Amino acid sequence: MKTLFALAAVAGLCWGGYKVLGGPSHAQRAAKACSNLADLCTDGTFTRHDVDECTADLNGTSTHHELEIDKFVDCAADATSCPEIIGCVAGAANDPELRDFGKGFDRSRKH
Description:
Layout: H1 2-22, H2 26-41, H3 48-59, H4 66-76, H5 82-92, H6 96-109
Helix pairs in contact: 2-3, 2-4, 4-5
């Protein structure tokens, strides 16, 4: 039983270390999401200042919307097209009106 507990403790420490040190930080992912937004969804009108401002906005959100922002950042940082980023916005939203948008969109695609 002690061996099992020790293994679980080591596994937990390894997992925690990976989560803290292993992947890109939230700030790096936010910068990538904003860069993707600029590259994929504009005709070059986004300046470096706009990307920096977008990144600061995503990093400076209140805890009230933290979950939605994290979902958007994780999705948009890996996006490869503008429609995919738009989907990231709609999918990350935890707002009743936007959820209704998603329901209507899904219903219209069934026909």
